[in-house]
Amino acid sequence: MVSKELSNLSSETDLRRADSLAREIFSDVANKWALLIIEALGERTLRFSELRVEVEGISHKMLTQNLRMLERNGLAERKVHPTVPPRVEYTLTEPGQALRATVDLICGWTHEYFSHIEAARRRFGT
Q: How far is it, in rounded angstroms, from Cα 123 to Cα 126?
């Protein structure tokens, strides 16, 4: 079904093409940090420091890069409050919230098949 849908797409929207914008967007959002940030922001608006706590293990640099990417792709909004020091908050846009629904499905899949994958890894020796 997906292949049939993809055959009718323009070159810019075809994920199979290495030079397509769709592939670039997919690559941007299909990384662990972006998915975890989207999941964290799905609940509420958060400040940068709150996001670092929510997304355990992310470095300052990776959080900054991923937030900029999410903004560039219109998935998150950054609001700067005119205080000293400036207070910066991030929230998901409507397309970001729509993507979060997919992220929630991935999280659910992870929980559902966790035991199966864990057992397979033990058999594989990792």
A: 8
- Dihedral of CA atoms 90, 96, 97, 101 in degrees, nearest 10, equals -130
Helices (H) and strands (E) in the chain, counts: 6, 3
Q: Find the helix packing angle between 60-72 and 21-29, rounded to 10°.
A: 140
Q: In the structure, what pLDDT confidence band is assigned to residue 126 with cuts at 50, 70 and 90?
A: low
Share of residues in the chain with pLDDT > 90 (%): 80
In DSSP notation, 8-50 reads: TS-TTT-TTSTT-HHHHHHHHHSSHHHHHHHHHHTTS-EEHHH
User: Which stretch of DSSP H or E encloses residue 92?
Assistant: strand 87-92
pLDDT tens per residue, range 52-75:
999 999 999 999 999 999 999 999
How far out from the chain centre does Cα 8 lie? 26
Q: pLDDT by residue (tens digit) across 86-97?
A: 999 999 999 999
